[in-house]
Write a structure and sequence with these properties.
Blueprint lengths: L2 H24 L3 H27 L10 H7 L3 H29 L3 H14 L1 H14 L9
Helix pairs in contact: 1-2, 1-4, 1-5, 2-4, 4-5, 4-6, 5-6
């Protein structure tokens, strides 16, 4: 498959996953959250990721030992796309985990929308935002016993 087309498909899948996650939190549809953003979409992204890695990694230059090696690795379009899909899948899974954690923490559902946006766009910044909100408005602050 054409890499540009796969990039577009992966992005559309990720957006569908985030939309399903937001709807599942706003309307307390836990089954939707478990099935679509929590399983099906990450599975699809994982299949694409593994296919790209199997095809592109053996012949790619670079590696993971230094920043220069990572930069060399991502000069390959296949490896760059694999890295992007890695981000899409893992950020969505972090969003699912934050939604699940919020069932105990109790941040108002509407406040989770900016957390999800930050997680989608900036990964760890969304996790940080969740922890900050947890400390400010959550029923179970950071460090409290479960």
């Amino acid at each position: 498959m054409d890499l540009d087309r796969l990039f577009s498909i992966a992005g559309a899948l990720a957006m569908a996953g985030w939309l399903a996650l937001v709807l599942s939190v706003l309307f307390d549809w836990r089954g939707l959250r478990r099935l679509v953003p929590g399983l099906l979409i990450p599975l699809g992204l994982s299949v694409a990721y593994v296919a790209l890695i199997v095809k592109g990694f053996p012949g790619a230059e670079g590696g993971f030992g230094s920043l220069d090696q990572v930069a060399a690795l991502f000069r390959s379009r296949e490896m760059l796309l694999a890295g992007w899909i890695h981000y899409l899948a893992f950020d969505l899974l972090v969003g699912v985990l934050l939604a699940r954690e919020n069932e105990q923490v109790g941040i108002p559902r509407v406040l989770m929308i900016p957390v999800f946006a930050a997680t989608f766009l900036f990964g760890p910044a969304g996790f940080l935002a969740f922890q900050a909100l947890r400390g400010i408005v959550g029923r179970r602050p950071l460090g409290a016993s479960a």
